[in-house]
Structure formats: C-alpha cells, structure tokens
Design goal:
CATH topology of the largest domain: Outer Surface Protein A, domain 3
Oligomer: single chain
Structural class: alpha+beta
Largest sheet: 4 strands, antiparallel
Order of helices and strands: EEEEEEHEEEEEEHE
CATH architecture of the largest domain: Alpha-Beta Complex
Helix content: 10-25%
Distance between the termini: 64 Å
Amino acid sequence: MPIDVPGGVQVTIGDDNAVTVKGARGQLTRSFNRDMRITQEDKRLLVERPGDDRVHRSMHGLTRTLLANMVLGVSTGFERVLEVSGVGYRVQKTGDGLSFQVGFSSAVDYHLPAGIDAAVEGNNRVRLSGFDKELLGQVAASVRAIRPCDHYKGKGIKYLGEKVRIKPGKAGKVTKG
C-alpha cells in the first residue's frame, strides 16, 4: 500500500535505507532494515519486501507504518490528551515543563523534551503535541506514570477517554446509615 506524500514534505532516501523526512513541523530521520526496499515515485513512497517468509512480512508492515507516521508527523503532527482527576489535583504549565499537584507532599515537576509542546486547559487537562509519534507516546506514558489512576477511588492521571473500573473495596465493610 503506497504512502502519499503531501505537498511541503521532502523525503530523502539515503544509503543503508536511511530515510529523512522534512516538513513544516520538523525533521525526522530513521534507518530501516536493508532487506526492505524503499522507493519514491512522484509523490508516493513504496515499501517492497524481498520474499514472503514470516520475518519479511512482519518487517514490511512495520517499515510501512513507521514511514507513514514520519510523513504524517512532519505534516500535521500528533496529539495526546491527559486528564488529572481527584480533589485538589491540578497541573500547571511552567517554563519548559509541567508541575503536578497530585497528592504528594510537594509538587512533581516534569521537564518536556525538545519537540514536545504542552498546553494546559483549565487546571486538570493537558494537551501534549509533537511530530514524533514514538517520543510523544513515551512522554505521555511517563507523565501518566507520575500518578496512575487508582482503581479504588478513581484519582490520578489518565488518558482522555480511558475507562477506569472502580473496585468495590473490602467485602466485609459495613456502612453506617
């Protein structure tokens, strides 16, 4: 399945299957396996495999997906949204990072790497954006790991739309009432 290259995106295929993609948002470079043959025809990228054995089939799909993510990232970019939920839990944007108040005795500061931007909406929602999908996913997972969502109270940091199943607690607990 060919990958369409939008206008304003330049693709350079070098020696040893090193592909460089430049766009409006940035530049990404990645080396791929030598068995995969990457060619550019007009405004399309094609990935071909040498054989039909299992390793080449799986590598073919991985190479195509990584290339498609590179092209999409430098042209439009990617985004992840995290939600902070809990009484007194909040997030603030600092100079080059984020500061979380999530139930610890002091605030947890997180430094954002180059290429990742953050916007805080209200005081409980963080919108992370960037052009490298792999780095963006790692940063979102690291931020979520500061205080993962608790399954007993539902407090913590979670992805937007993530369902947290609340456990009932102790079975022998008697409520007054």
